[in-house]
Write a structure and sequence with these properties.
31% of the residues are buried. The chain has 134 residues and is mostly beta strands. It has a five-stranded mixed β-sheet, with no helix packed on it. It has a four-stranded antiparallel β-sheet with strand order 7-6-10-11, with no helix packed on it. The protein has a three-stranded antiparallel β-sheet with strand order 1-2-3, with no helix packed on it. The chain has no helices and twelve strands. The N terminus is likely disordered. 0% of the residues lie in helices and 53% in strands.
Length: 134
């Protein structure tokens, strides 16, 4: 993937994560997700069977514990609903469109799972993986 941006350019405030947009070798838009300075995922725009929920991580940042989830937009391009859950609480996250083909959600708190739905239909559930230690 050839881009001129650095991961720090897309740093998500108050978290150890960064994102950047680029292009795949075939010229399709791509989203790179970084945990600290380590590339953890590349999501390439595709019209075929998009994974609405692609990944999730958690970490402890200087501002406290936090979690991130990301994926591709459903075919209708409406943002999905994202629900982070922990042992004792559930938190509906604010979801943001990235690059016109992906979404991203960040929540502050201790969470173990994330569920994604779109227009009332379940699109996936993941256990949130621990991130890199600083």
């Amino acid at each position: 993937m050839a881009t001129s941006a650095t991961p720090a350019a897309g740093r998500l405030t108050g978290t150890p994560w960064a994102v950047r947009l680029g292009r795949s070798s075939a010229g399709r838009a791509a989203l790179e997700v970084y945990d600290a300075e380590t590339l953890v995922d590349v999501v390439v725009e595709t019209p075929v069977a998009p994974e609405t929920l692609r990944g999730a991580r958690r970490a402890v940042s200087p501002g406290g514990p936090c979690a991130i989830a990301w994926g591709r937009l459903p075919a209708a391009t409406a943002l999905p609903e994202v629900l982070f859950a922990g042992w004792t609480r559930r938190y509906p996250a604010d979801v943001f469109m990235v690059g016109g083909f992906c979404w991203l959600a960040v929540a502050h708190g201790r969470f173990t799972t994330v569920r994604v739905s779109h227009r009332g239909d379940s699109c996936g559930r993941l256990r949130i993986r621990g991130g890199r230690r600083p």
